What we know:
alpha/beta, 24 helices, 5-stranded parallel sheet, single chain
Amino acid sequence: MAALKRFLIGRPLKSTELGEQKLTKKKALAILSSDALSSVAYGPEQILLVLITVSTAAFWYSIPIGIGVLILLLALILSYRQIIFAYPHGGGAYVVSKQNLGVYAGLIAGGSLLVDYILTVAVSVSAGTDAITSAFPALHEHTVGIAITFVLLITLLNLRGVTESASILAYPVYLFVAAMLILIGAGLFSIVTGKVTPDLHTPIGTPVAGIGLFLLLRAFASGSSALTGVEAISNAIPNFKDPAPSNAAKTLMAMGGLLALLFSGIVYLAYYFGITPNAEATVVSQIAEHTFGRHLIYYIIQGTTALILILAANTGYSAFPLLAVNLAKDKFIPRMFTMRGDRLGYSNGIIILGLLSIVLIIAFQGQTEHLIPLYAVGVFIPFTLSQTGMMVKWIREKPAGWVPKLIINTTGAVISFTVSIMFFLTKFAQVWTILIFLPLIVYLFHRIKKHYEAVSEQLRLSTCEQAVPIEGNVIILPVSGITHVVEQSLNYAQSLSANQIIAVYIPFERDDEVRFEEKWNKWRPDVRLVTLHSPYRSIIHPLSKFIHTVQRKASESNYQVTVIIPQFIPKKSWHNLLHNQSSIMIRAYLLFRKDVIITTVPYHLKK
Length: 607
């Protein structure tokens, strides 16, 4: 197992090598912006899907709606840049909300983001898998298996360390960016040179019957789904090389610039080419076909789009473990999330994220597109809380130049709140579950916190409660015969200066009981033997009742009960499959008992 682990994950790294696992700006941009950049593949399409409910003549509204999305993007980028410098240890919306709006607001933001990162992995991988099965229909019946395989591969890559996963995953991300830039450049060139007729689209400003403010806000909210993943960099500041805040801020600005360029380019080309969304071909696919035809470049663009949709999941793997660390440090989730693995990543967070994502994929049979609205609203709740938290911070502290910062955060908070409300008003059937599971998550956080506080209070030496003195030790020794294994276990038991040693034999037949008692009394008459006849051939049941009885009486006298399990160790490890079944069963049962000490005394065979 150790050899397999090393092959899959790599050699363990020393703690002093942590600096080598930090990300450069180029690698960080690739793995932390993949979620945001991938939304270019479906964000513009979401706007058109709302507008087409009126008519294709309404498509010109995608231009002002796209500008609105870019204004929100600018507000979010500038705001999260401020958060990076104000909270350089990471934590993003959770830390900002907790420190400025209170613990409950922080837990709502943190819980929303934890769930959102799980949804990011499930939705992204499922979308990428759909792109593959659309190209190869014969694979459609294997959608769930393919999606799970991708999750396992991305999980494994991240377990190998942040730097190694970034080195591998950066190439397809930058390939996607290059493909999109080529597509947008070629499309604009076709427009400038007059190869695209203006008759394909409705002129901007054309009156359209049936258009109302509510529908435009609904289209704006749907298009804002392109901004999911913008907050990931502020959560992952500790992953950057020093100076981490400065590098994170520059990476965030680069991501914002790329996202704005790609999003606006696709929105404009979709409008000018008169693209109508349909189930057979995505908007990006139609633009690529219109520009290049179904030739090599078209298939490269389709391939890189499928790849970026899958790799968008990696943003979750980068941000989820670090957010979990902040929650675990505050004792709202188990402390195991603060432990670094062999490759210095927070491997418990990575593994849990992968497992929960697989559960979602199986539960929805790989058809997770219905989770996209829930996925989007799960982002805009933390967006709103973090912007509001920064507003409170500036008003309370009033540092130099605080008014422009307040305006930026106020703009972001108002727009984010509007988008959140629009999701609830227009897609309530798909997002109502957040009103149930989010309070449950916050309640769970508090229960875990209370548990840690209760345990800490009881363990603290400064408490007035005195530790219960242990007056003696009672040792229970299950035996199945008179052998060197039992002899060695008895010798060990006697070396502990126990007040009483009880050997326990569990026969299935009365004749065996009588014979063993005679043998024992001849061999070790100084050690008390208790026989527990088991007519139903169970070892665990009579032994557990006996241990319970002894423990109850021993606790009245402040005695500690220890169970010693004899076990011989074969020379070849696979021989364990042929022996020691009873010892293994007893040890497995005793693991669930909290009132006894368990120890195994091994006897090593020489051949």
